[in-house]
Each structure stands twice: as structure tokens, then as C-alpha cells.
Specification:
By secondary structure, the chain is an alpha/beta fold. It is 38% helix and 22% strand. The chain contains eleven helices and ten strands. The longest helix is centred in the middle third of the chain and has 16 residues. Bound molecules: adenosine-5'-triphosphate and magnesium ion.
Length: 274
């Protein structure tokens, strides 16, 4: 059996000052899995995922990356395996041009200049940011800065992608780009972890959803199962995607299970094959 890329073994985190931001959490992320992490503000989502590339270290329990204890491995070593796109791109970007930003990661991995150039080119064309290469990342609007942050991680080609709030502040085109990125990563067999308040995105792309509440994972399951659990929705104060809420009120019982996406709703209403 293939080794899971990420295992949390009773992993917990208490910040200096005594804030217990994550209670001991045991979790195995499978290779190629797209995992959604949802929960209210302050429930511990970012704290959990920041462990995956060593930005935070467990204050209790262990993190295994590809089956090995991550503790002795520095962040730049873990970054080979796990790419982390920050919730706030200002915490990630530091180069003076977009091109330099894209070059930095693959160069640091010790790739040859030819391979670095190739990676930069691939990331540029995938994200359609050719015109931005000479721009200063800080002069870009927030949504574009966030796309550049994603592109710079994409250029490193890690096996695991962690996207913290990838669609926040994005317009329709930006959100579509995020969906395209996740689908591309899935096709490439990468593992993707997405933290998001965007339930429509989670419903569309996630194989499994973790719901956090007050520093604890209170539910884990398919989007269909999690969004159908009233107890989880009430406790986390989250809502299923709007199309699911609409269908719940409007659709006849025969269309159950409730649709999670517009495509599923259309299929149910028009009697098409899903
Ligand atoms: N550096 C820090 N020092 C102390 N406490 C922190 C720190 N970072 C986060 N916290 C606290 O830890 C808890 C969890 O925060 P975290 O950022 O993980 O939540 P989140 O679920 O990602 O929230 P959001 O949806 O707002 O991004 C919160 O109570 C937060 O105030
Ligand atoms: Mg967060």
C-alpha cells in the first residue's frame, strides 16, 4: 500500500500564551486525496494545516510526512513535499518581481537553471500571468497577488498542496482558476488540502471534509454526508452550499440525496444522468 503523505498522530498545538488552538488530532491524508477543511473563524483550520510543511511544529503528538517523523526536518526540506499557499499572500511573497518570486522556490530546490526556467514558464502559462512577470507583487491587487502566490508554489511541483482560503477575495474568473488548479492537481495525482469558507467550492472538489469547531475536528466524511448532518451544520454554524439549501426547501423527496452542485441539481431536475 502507498504511504500516506501526511499523518497527524494526536497532533495538538498550543500557542505561546496558552491558547489551545488545536486539540490532539489524529488524521491520515491519503495520496491523491482532495481534503476540505471547514469551520468558523478561529476554529483552528490554519493552525492545523500550517503543521503540514513545518511552519508550525506540534506542541503535542507527532506529524509524519511520507511515513517519517517531520520533527527533525527543516521547513526548506519539507517544502519539497508540501507546498503551502498562505491565507494572506503578503506573508508569502517577498521578491521584487513576479518572475523572481516564481524562480525562487524551484531554485532553492537545487533544480538546474533549465528546469527552473521550464517550471517558471509552466506556472506562468497555467495561471495566465505572462503580463505580470515584471510587476512588483505588492503592486498587484489582492486577488492577483494570491494567484501569484499559488503560481509560486505550483512552480515548485510539490506532491501535497495546501491552499488556505484560495477563493477569498477572488472574482468569478479567479475562483474558476482555483477550481482549474485543483482539477489539474487531481489529474496529476497530487494530494490537495483546501481550507475554505466557500462551501460550494468544497462541495464541488473535496473527496472528504473535516469540520472543525473550537480547536477540534468534530466530523469527517464525504461532502454529501457532512452537509446532510444538521448537528454538524448547527454546531459549526456552517451552511451547505446554496444550491443544496434551495433543493432541500424546494425539491421533491424523490430528488434525494440532495444535490451538492449546480450540475447535480440540473441533472436531478432534468432527469439527466449524473
Ligand atoms: N500566532 C498566534 N498566537 C496566539 N494565538 C493564535 C495565533 N494564531 C492563531 N491564534 C489563535 O488560535 C485560534 C485558531 O486560529 P486559526 O488561525 O488556526 O483559525 P482559523 O480556523 O484558520 O480561522 P480563520 O477562518 O479566521 O482563518 C484562534 O483563537 C486564534 O486567535
Ligand atoms: Mg485561517
Amino acid at each position: 500500500m502507498t504511504t500516506p503523505p501526511i499523518v497527524c498522530d494526536a497532533l495538538g498545538h498550543e500557542y505561546a500564551g496558552g491558547v489551545l488552538a488545536l486539540k490532539p488530532t489524529t488524521l491520515t491524508i491519503q495520496p491523491g486525496e482532495v481534503l476540505g477543511v471547514v469551520g468558523q473563524n478561529g476554529s483552528g483550520k490554519t493552525t492545523l494545516v500550517k503543521h503540514f510543511n513545518g511552519l508550525l511544529r506540534p506542541t503535542s503528538g507527532r506529524l509524519l510526512i511520507n511515513g517519517e517523523d517531520a520533527r527533525p526536518r527543516p521547513v526548506h526540506d519539507l517544502a519539497r513535499h508540501v507546498g503551502y499557499v498562505f491565507q494572506n499572500p503578503n506573508h508569502q511573497l517577498f521578491a521584487t518581481t513576479v518572475e523572481a518570486e516564481l524562480r525562487f522556490g524551484p531554485t532553492n530546490l537545487g533544480l538546474t537553471p533549465e528546469t527552473v526556467a521550464e517550471r517558471v514558464q509552466q506556472a506562468t502559462s497555467f495561471f495566465g500571468i505572462e503580463k505580470l512577470l515584471t510587476s512588483h507583487p505588492y503592486r498587484l491587487a489582492f486577488p492577483l497577488r494570491k494567484l501569484v502566490a499559488m503560481a509560486s508554489v505550483y512552480a515548485m511541483g510539490p506532491d501535497v498542496f495546501v491552499l488556505d482560503e484560495p477563493t477569498t477575495g477572488q472574482d468569478h474568473a479567479g475562483s474558476n482558476m482555483v477550481r482549474k488548479l485543483i482539477e489539474r492537481l487531481r489529474e496529476q495525482g497530487k494530494t490537495v488540502v483546501i481550507v475554505s469558507h466557500d462551501m460550494a467550492l468544497i462541495a464541488e472538489v473535496a473527496d472528504r471534509v473535516l469540520a472543525l469547531w473550537a480547536a477540534e475536528v468534530i466530523a469527517s466524511g464525504s461532502p454529501r454526508a457532512i452537509f446532510a448532518e444538521d448537528r454538524v451544520m448547527q454546531r459549526t454554524k456552517l451552511y451547505p452550499p446554496q444550491i443544496t439549501q434551495f433543493a432541500r426547501r424546494w425539491a421533491p423527496a424523490s430528488t434525494r440525496p440532495l444535490p451538492l452542485t449546480v450540475a447535480e441539481a440540473a441533472a436531478a431536475v432534468l432527469g439527466e444522468e449524473r
